[in-house]
Design brief:
The complex is a heterodimer of chains A (about 120) and B (about 110). In chain A, strand 7 and strand 8 form a beta hairpin. With about 120 residues, chain A is mainly beta. With about 110 residues, chain B is an all-beta fold. Helix content of chain B is about 0%, strand content about 50%. Chain B has no helices and 12 strands. In chain B, strands 2, 5, 6, 10, 11 and 12 form a 6-stranded mixed sheet that branches. A 4-stranded antiparallel sheet of chain B has the order 3-9-8-7, with no helix packed on it. In chain B, strands 1-4 form a two-stranded antiparallel sheet. In chain B, a hairpin with a 5-residue loop joins strand 5 and strand 6. In chain B, about 35% of the residues are buried. The model of chain B has no long low-confidence stretch (mean pLDDT about 90). The chains are: A mainly beta (about 120), B mainly beta (about 110).
């Protein structure tokens, strides 16, 4: 089956530093990747849609300069949390879409990255 | 805008009992509908999905869901739960015109021995 990995699985950083989270599709090419944020005991909130070779599309209320997304290849998307603050602490999950235009049907989720900002 | 409501934050059932998790959606047309399960420390796993056709959808692990347009519902059912079913369950909706998936707030399922 299709596998999506995320690295790191957990990260602790100091306030003011930047953190990069990688999302990789291991055995398929993903033209579209999605980034979600999950607050404790809350739902997944879609942050942005990342398309290979183009700028990411951010959902309303998500700061583009705060959460930098790069989709440099068909198997890798990165989310960089810039100048992280404690309120950015959360569980970040990515998903990858295998077939263009059929994202919902073939979206595979990564295991998530737990970010703790001290 | 489309939305998903899961009215039950927590559900507790005894092992071997039947289960129904509720999900209501708000969308103008017929959406794509999904149920995902998230176990502690694990990623989201797709249980089943509805795109069109038969309104009773069979999924993995013995789960099924029924799409009822008149009630804007897509409830998840299982005739007999197992202790390993304890997890967080998310109902989700997707629009046909793009690849986005919008999640409900989830229902935590607890299983009594």
């Amino acid at each position: 089956g299709a596998v999506v990995s995320q690295h790191p699985s957990r990260v602790i950083c100091k306030s003011g530093t930047s953190v990069k989270i990688e999302c990789r599709s291991l055995d398929f090419q993903a033209t579209t990747m999605f980034w979600y944020r999950q607050f404790p005991k809350k739902s997944l909130m879609l942050m942005a849609t990342s398309n290979e070779g183009s700028k990411a599309t951010y959902e309303q209320g998500v700061e583009k300069d705060k959460f930098l997304i790069n989709h440099a290849s068909l198997t890798l998307s990165t989310l960089t949390v810039t100048s992280a603050h404690p309120e950015d602490s959360s569980f970040y999950i990515c998903s990858a879409s295998r077939i263009p235009g059929q994202g919902q049907e073939t979206q595979y989720f990564g295991p998530g990255t737990r970010l703790l900002v001290l | 805008a489309q939305s998903v409501t899961q009215p039950d934050i927590h559900i507790t059932v005894s092992e071997g009992a039947s289960l129904e998790l509720r999900c209501n959606y708000s969308y103008g047309a017929t959406p794509y509908l999904f149920w995902y399960v998230q176990s502690p420390g694990q990623g989201l796993q797709l249980l089943l999905k509805y795109f069109s056709g038969d309104t009773l959808v069979q999924g993995i692990k013995g789960f099924e869901a029924e799409f009822k347009r008149s009630q804007s519902s897509f409830n998840l059912r299982k005739p007999s739960v197992h202790w390993s079913d304890a997890a967080e369950y998310f109902c989700a909706v997707g629009e046909r015109r793009d690849d986005k998936i919008i999640f409900g707030k989830g229902t935590r399922l607890h299983i009594l021995p």
